[in-house]
Amino acid sequence: MKEQHFSFRPYHSILLFFIFAGVMYTLYWYLVPNLNYEIPEMVFVVLFLGGIGWYCYDAFFKSNSVCYLDIYPECFLTQNLQRQATYYYYRDIADIELLTYTSQQITAYRLTLLMKSGEKIPLKLELFSGKAIQSLAILVTERI
Fold first, then answer.
1. Backbone φ, ψ for residue 44 (5° rounding)
2. Residues 79, 132 within the same domain
3. Which of 77, 91, 111, 128 could share a disulfide with 132, CB 3.0–4.6 Å?
4. With b meaning 16 or more CB within 10 Å and e meaning fewer, what string describes 64-78?
5. For residue 60, what are the domain limits?
């Protein structure tokens, strides 16, 4: 089974583009001296463009393949060849294992979900701190 790697994904750049475009659009209209735009209208423009960006993110990406451990703690996602966008809920988890691998370059944390079906699902978490991983393990353990 292929391990889940958390990294910067392409849809982050799309979301950031909409946010950046909203900020630049707001600054342009606010800084042009001949226009009589006020701050509340600029805030509306930023929220509008940010909303478009969030809608695209939510509609096209989150519903298909995204389930962040920190944003959506009620479910876990493993992406592999056999199970694209498969969600595992707390009720399906029997237990967890938390292992730490330390080398000179990096400390890798392996959180293995032991499912009630007997399946073991490893999640390799490189970008989270040790404290965050331990907190996550405690959270999952308390919810089981």
1. -60, -45
2. yes
3. 128
4. eebbebeeeeeebbb
5. 4-65
